[in-house]
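Appendix C reproduces, verbatim, an entry submitted by the partner laboratory led by Prof. M.T., so that reviewers can inspect both the input and the predicted structure.
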Amino acid sequence: MEVKIWSDVRCPFCYIGKRKFEAALAGFAHKDEVTITWKSFELDPNIQTVEDTNIYDYFANAKGIPHTQAVEMFDNVTRVAAEVGLEFKLDKSVVANSFNAHRLIQLAKTKGMGNEIEEELFKIHFMEGKNIDDEGVLISAGANIGIPEAEIVALLESDDFDADVRIDQLEAQRIGIRGVPFFVFDDKYAVSGAQAPEVFLQTLDKAWDSKI
């Protein structure tokens, strides 16, 4: 059974959803027969990377809300993340375009390392405050999971995997995905958002039963 997950490494609920899905998968009787395919989705393809901007100010300006409301929203996300064992440091996160990170994910997928690179990129963005659009950071992230640095350098110096990112996003448009995380089970059932593990487990069971 295949589970496709559309996600953006800039999306905190995508990381939270990953943890909740993993909790469900751990309790699924047929977990060893589940293939996970990560799909690219840019929440804001036009965002410009700005390392010296306070994330609260940026978010408040982008959404047209008071600074205090932005802080409150980020604090709430941090609390939700802590419930699944994630120690977010959103006040240190860097405003960054995620397109090159998605290209690195596509490269990692060709090596069977899609889950590993997603975890690494989520961690460095939300917990370590690193710039996911910085070449050095991306090279280090890929190297940490075993991708040769030379391959990552070659990727970043070319347009390799640009099309793969676009194809994933076109597929998302075709099936009506407007937000992430978004999970599709064997192209039959879908779960939108960082739902409770019980919801994911029920959907895993339903998708599995439909195969029999």
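The longest helix spans residues 67-82. Additional entries are available on request from the coordinating office.
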